[in-house]
User: What shape does this take?
Amino acid sequence: MLMTGNMAAAWGARLGRADYIPAYPITPQTEIIETIAKWVRLGEMDAKLVQMESEHSMLTAAGAASLAGARVFTATSSQGLLYALEMLYNISGWRAPMMLINVARALAAPITLEPDHNDVLAARDTGFLQFHAETCQEVLDLILLAYRVAEDSSVLLPAIVNLDGFYLSFTREKVTLPSEQDVSTFLPDYNPPNPFRANMPVSKGATVLNGALYSYFKYHMHTSSIRALSVFEEAALQFERIFGRSYSPVEPYMMDDAEFVIVISNSFSTIAKQAVRRLRERGFPAGLLKLRMLRPFPSSLVARYLSARRGVAVFDQNISLGSGGIIYPEVVASLYHRRNRPQLLLPVIGGLGGKQITVEEMEKIFEAIKNEIGAESPDPIFLMRQEELETTKNMVRTAKEVQI
Amino acid sequence: MELQSKYKTLRDVPQIDYLAPGGSLCAGCGGLLAVRLFHKVLGKNVVWVNAAGCMTIMVNYPLVPLKSNWLYTAFASAPAGAQGIRDAFDILIRKGKIPESEDLKVVVLTGDGAAYDIGLQSTSGAIYRNLDFYYLCYDNQAYGNTGFQVSSATPVGSATATTPPVPSEPAGNIQKRKDLFEIWRAHNPPYIATLSSSYTVDFLRKVEKGSTFKGPKLYISLAGCPTGWGYDPRETIREEKLAVETGIWPLKEAVEGKVKHTVVPRALKPVEEYLATQSRYQHLFNPVRRKEVIRSIQEQVNLYWEEASKREDFEIKLVNT
Amino acid sequence: MPLITNYFLALTLDFYILTQPLIVIPDKFLMILMIVRVRFHGRGGQGAKTASRILGTASFVEGMNVQDSPVYGAERRGAPVTAFTRISDSEILERGYVFDPDLLIVMDATLLASPVAKVTDGIRKKGAIFLNAQSANIIGEHYTLPSDVRIASYDLTSSAMEMLGKPIISSASAAAAARLVGLVKESSLEQAIVTELEEIGLSEEMIKKNVMLGRKIFSSLEPLELATEESEKKLRIVPLEMITSNDGLEDIIAVGNSKVAKTGSWRIFKPVVDYEKCTACTVCYAYCPESALILRQDGKPEIDYDNCKGCLICYRECPPKAINIEREVIAF
Assistant: This one.
C-alpha cells in the first residue's frame, strides 16, 4: 500500500494491539491520532483513545496506564514533547515500557513546522529508547520492534520512534503491512511485572532521599538501556525470519570499501544515499552509516564500521547552541580509543528547521571530507546555500525596513 | 448606572485599522475579525501575547499585519507572559526607567484549545492574581490550526477530526462544552463578556466597558470558522448571527460577577436552522435525520434560556421540542 | 562528462549510457531504470495535494515505485500550494522537495508571477510545463517561461466548472500529468481517482463526475516523450557568518508590512462596488476581516484588490446589494 509515515505509525499502534492511546493534537503529528480515533470509533481497533488537555497530561496518563498493564501508544511533536519532558523522566523511572511517536519538528522560537532533531534529542537523557526512521516502512517496523524490546523483561524502558515531519509524516510511499497473526507471533501480549492489582498491591515511584539509592536505580536503568541493544539485535533476527526485512541498530550503505563516510540518521539519509550512489558512479569511494538506534547509542557498532576509514563526516540535523551537533561528540567518543580511527571526523550541521538539502550539497560534504584530511582542525560545515542566504537576507531586510 | 457608550450604530466602528491586510489566515476568518474590532477599541498602544493557535500564523516572518506589539509565547502559558510584561511595565514606570506614555495594554490572544484546555491553569493564575490585562479567546470550538480536533469547547453534535460520527457514535462529539464564562466568573474578575463580531455594537461596547475596570477583563468571542465548520467564507457573519438568534451563543456580560444578557432574542429560532448550514453537523441530517440529537441540543438551549430569563426577569419565546 | 541522473543506471550494466537521453514510452516499462518527478503548483482549494496523490496511486497501480507529498505551509484557501509525485521503476533515492522537476503542472497560471511560489525554478532541460490555460501562447506573452522546455496547455478550470460545477481540478490535473508522463493507463487513472476521492469523503456522484472529467482530460492530451537532462547547477555553500548587528534578531520592526504579500491572488471571485446603489452604510467596512476595504471621504467603500482575499462577506452582507461579484478571469 501507499501510505504516509503518519499512517504507518497508526498502523504500528493497530498491529501492535495498543490498548490505550491518550492524545493531544500538534502538527505534524495529528493525523496519527485522527486515524486511530477513527478506527477506534468504527470498532476496527479495540482500544480506548482519549483526548487530553495537554501533552503533559497525555504522557502522565500514558505512563500510568502502562503501569496498570495496558499497552500504550501515543504521539507528539516538538513543543509538545518538550512540554511533556518532565514526565518522560518519570515514565522511564517507573519502568513503564510505553510507546511514544515523535514526529520531528524544530523548536520555537522562531516557531516553525518542519523538522530537525532538537526536539527528540532533548529527550536523549530521559531513559526512553530511541529509534529513528528513514522510510515509512521503517516507521511501522520500528514500532513493532521497539515494543518488543521495550517490554522485554530485561529492558522495561519506554521507547520513542522518531519520524521526520513532512519528509515522512506527509510523504506517501510503499509500505508492506504484515498480517495480524505474524505480528502476534513476533510481539506477544504485554505482561508487565507488578501491575496495580487488587490482590497484589504495589507502590511505584517512591521518594528515595538518598544519593546511593538514587544512583543504584539510575545505574540499573542505564544497564537496562545498554542491554536493549542486544535485545534489539535478537528481536531483529526473528523479525527478519517472519517478515523478511532486516534491521540492525546501524545500517551500512555501500560501506564495503568506502574510504569516505557520512554518518547520518532519519529521512535525509535517503538523499545522502543518492549522493553516495552518484559518487560511486564517478568512482569515488563514498559510503554511509545510518544510525537507526540513538538510545542506547550503538558505540561499538559505530566504532567497528568507522574504523580504518580515511575520513568521516557526522551529519547533525540539530544544534546544541554554543557547542555544535549533538551526535558528533558521541561518534568521536566511540572512536577515540580505536587505534585505526579515521584521520578526520568532520562535523556538519544541516537541515535545521527542515532546511532542504540537495543531493549536490550532500556530495559537497564528501568533497569536503577528502579536502580536509590532514587539516589541523577542520572547520565545521554549516549547510547554507548561497541562494538560500540571499533569499533569507532579503526577508530580514523586509522585516526591518520601516516604510513611512 | 450605565456607561454612555461611544458606539451606537455600525457607523461608529472606528475608522482606523491596526491590522494591515495580507496576513495568511483563511479568507473569511471570524477570529481575525474579532481581533480587528477588539483592536479598534483598545487603540494602538497594545501588546498582544499570543498562545499557539491559528493566530500564530498571523505573524509569518518577515510579514506582520499588526501595527502594534506582539509576542508569541507558547500554548500553555500566554497569561503568564502577560503577567511578565505587565509587571515589567509597572516596575519600570514606577522606577522612572520608562515614561508612562510608553505603557501598553496587555492582551492575551488565544483560541479555545489554549483557553479551555492547555492554558486554563495559567489563565486561572492570572485572574487569581488580579492581573490588569485583557484576555480575548477567539472560540471556533475546536483545535482549528491543527485541522479541527475536539476541544473542550466543542459543542455536542459537532463532528471533529477526532470525533468523527460513526454508526456507534452517530452524534460526533458527545462531551458537553465547558462553561468557560462560569469558570472565569468563579474567580471573581471585574469584567467578563461573550462577543460576536456579528453584533458589532454590542461587541465594541463591551470592550469599551471592560476598559473601565482594572484587573482581568475577559472575553470569549465566537469565531465563525469557514474551514473547520464547513461553510462558504462569505457566510461568517450569517453563521455567527444565527448562533445568537438560535440562542446557541448567548451574548452576555458579568460585571463584578453579576450576569446580564446584553442581547435577548424575542423568540429563539430553532437550532436546526443554524446546525443545518454547517458541514460539521451534516451527519445530524444526512443520510438519516438524528432527531434525538437535534432535540437534545434544542432542549439544552431552552433550558439555558429558561433559567436565564427567570434569573434576570426577561421574556423569551423558546422553541417547542 | 555530464552525469544524467534522470535515469538511474541498472547496477548490473557495466556500461553507462550517459549521452543518450532515454525516451519514456507510454504504457511500457523501460529496460533501464528511470524516474520522473512531477511538481504541482496550485492554490489552496484547487486540489494540488489530491492531484499528486491521484497520480501517485495511478502509477502505483501500474506497478511503479511512487513517492508523493505536499508542502504544507501556513496554507490557506487561495494561498500557493506545492505537491510532488515521483515515479520510478526502482527504489526512489530522493525525498522531500522536488528541486528539479521533469514535469511542472501549473494549476493556476497567475502563480508564474509569484515570487514565493517560484514555479519554474529548477526545471530540467527538455522538461515540460503544463499550463492550466486556454492558450499557452498568451501566457507566454505575460510571463517569462524558461527556454529549452516543452509547453502544453489545457483549460482544466473551465472543464471542471462545466462538469463538476466547481473550480476544483485535482482529478483534471492528475489526468493531465498522467497522460503527459505516459506511464499510466486510463483505467489505472480512473481507479486512482476513485480511491483518492473516496479517501477524502466525496460523494459517489461527485466521484463519478470526477472520473468523467479525468477521462476527458486524459483523452484530450498526448504523451510527451519526456527525455530530460540535468540542468547545470551552481552550488556554493556559504561559510557561517558572524552577525554582529541586530540583523540576527528575528524581530519584525516593519510592523503592518503584510500588504506586500498581495493576498489578492487568493481570490476566485471578486467583489465589485456599485457606487450608484451604495448608501455608505459602512456595513461592509465593519465586517471585512482583512481590513482590505477602506472608506472614502463620502463613506463609500474602496476595495483593496491587491489584498482582498475574496471571502465575499461584504457582498453577502451589503444591505442595499450594492456589491456584485465577478469571477476572477485572467486576461488570457
Summary: Strands of chain B lie at 46-50, 69-72, 105-111, 133-139, 191-196, 216-222, 251-255, 258-263. The first strand of chain B starts at residue 46 and ends at 50. The interface with chain A takes residues 52, 56, 61-63, 72, 74-76, 113, 117-118, 120, 143, 145-147, 149-150, 152, 161-164, 166, 168-169 of chain B (CB under 8 Å).
